[in-house]
Amino acid sequence: MVSGFSRRIEAVMLPSRQGGDLTAGMWSLLQRFGGIPRSLLWDREAAIGGLGKPTILAASFAGTLATRLRLAPPRDPETKGIVERANRFLETSFPPGRIFQGRDDFNAQLTDWLETRANQRQVRAIAARPVELAAIDRAGLLPLPAKPPATGLTHRIRLARDYYVRLDGNDYSVDPRFIGRFVDVHASLDEVVISCAGQPAGQHPRSLRTGQTIPDPEHVATAAKLRAHYQRPKPSGVREHPDGHRVQIRALSDYDALFGVDFTTTTEYEKEAQ
To answer: Tens digit of pLDDT for each residue in 47-85?
Structure first.
């Protein structure tokens, strides 16, 4: 994101270009700016406004922030030339000669570079440095909302017997005690959190790779205990509760006697059928 007034640049690497990740990235950068601009100019990203109007997700995000979301005209990069020039400057000045150990390291180096180099440079168009106009820039912003907007990737799924949920091409383990129940999966930019009816069911660092299986050792151990319990031979007529105590299985005839059902007599209909 680039401020149209001070030319201040803020950036972060995202796990994907899905709408939930894009809004999460925008929210994190707006927090760095310390406020909300009167309007946000965005190109026609598919998850933001690929059909020429803001998606429901983008409109809800802008509405929560009390700002206006503007979409650039199609095939008109000059409309957001400030951002395009910032992109070119970032691409040619930041990555060359650097080594990154991962996304966290990339974002840490990028944040430091923006603070110490990019936003300290002299911008010819405004004849000033972005840091010199930071206070004026911040004074023109709306305050951050008391409640943050909903961002990230979220979905609900019934947990299958393999106790894994798939998100963005990766499988994350869930507490197997919730097998058969609906679980809520939420992914921020950094982690994946799974819950069931408000109870924690799993938490993992989010992986940028695809086709990965990310297990939790505690989930694997719990699944082994449950599997051993249900595979253990049970005595005839006795059922063992998961906590260890045995439960006697009643005969079906006991229930017939309790409800006054007698299957020994023959009804008139059965006599005619015979």
So the answer is: 999 888 999 999 999 999 999 999 999 888 888 899 999
CA 185/CA 252 separation, integer angstroms: 42
Task: Summarize pLDDT for 141-161 with one digit per residue, the tens.
Answer: 999 999 999 999 999 999 999
Name the one residue in this structure whose structure tokens are 């912003």: 141
pTM listed for this prediction: 0.79
According to DSSP H, which parts of the chain are helical? 19-33, 46-49, 56-64, 81-93, 103-116, 134-139, 217-231, 252-258, 268-273
Q: Is the Cβ–Cβ distance between 3 and 137 less than 8 Å?
A: yes
Let me know: does 22 contact 56? Beta carbons within 8 Å.
no
What is the CB neighbour count within 10 angstroms for residue 224?
Answer: 11
Amino acid at residue number 75? R
Nearest residue to 57 (alpha-carbon basis) of 167, 183, 193, 153:
153
**What is d(CA 242, CA 5) in angstroms, rounded to the nearest whole number?**
65
Contact 25, 216 (CB under 8 A): no
